[in-house]
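Many introductory courses stop at the sequence. We go one step further.
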Amino acid sequence: MGLFRRQLANVVEWKEFREDMIFYKWSNEEIKKGSRLIIRPGQDAIFLYNGKIEGIFKDEGDYDIESQIIPFLSTLKGFKFGFNSGMRAEVLFINTKEFITKWGTQNAINIPTPALPGGLPIRANGTVTFKVDDYIKLIDKIAGVRQSYFVEDVNLRIRAILDQLLMKWITKEGKDMFNLQANSFDISNGIKTDLGMQLFDSGLSITAFNIMSFNYPQEIQKMINKNASHSMVGDVGRYQQVEMTDGIASGKIKSGGTAADMTGMMMGMNIANQMMQNMNQQTSPSNQNSNTQNMGTKPNFCPNCGQKSGEANFCPNCGQKLA
């Protein structure tokens, strides 16, 4: 008879525990006489009967259900196990830890800027921390119709509304990238409050919301980096020469091919033309000055008698020195 009783008994526990599982419902069979309840660290066990909470047990341990659990249940504390009958109750195990998950914008958010009528697109990413805060709301909204609930399920709810909340607080606190980074703490607190209100009805609370970074989409960042490089070089022609030289040095432009030979010849011509222009700019003023001086020191007519002198150094009429 004792062996038969042990075969009827079962163990009520969270089977196949997962770190990303928020709750697990044990409801696959009757609770038999001699059954035991196992509560592990980080778990709470809630006994449900006809959808109503009968008792909440928070201390970890191994309990005899008949002698240590049933006496503390609301309407089942006088329940007596029969020989072949068991107690049809559900046990909801709650993961009591805080869950940390990453988030990121689904679509780029445009911030107003005079240069772009549609705004400048930016993205953001960070982490959000939440936990189960109200067991009654959790059972009414979620656990009453589901056997389990995962962090990814909460992520879906967060992602559905997060871009709207980011738009609200970004346009309120940040007019450009510098202001967004400077005001990221205030933006985080604002989103944490609003997001907590959205999840409040499901028994979850947001304990932390952090913004790791604001950034531009990849194609916008490339344009910004390129524009900054041009500004640092100052001269577009020189920038092109530097880019070409770097390409050859890095191996992106390989020597020995027709394209590389043409590239080298064009670089040589460009550099030679630039050198000639620099030389002409340096020599032209001196040539003009020397011509002016020569014209002023040797007149075409003698200043003494007025005789035409030509290229002579002395006047052929009166002998006046001309040069």
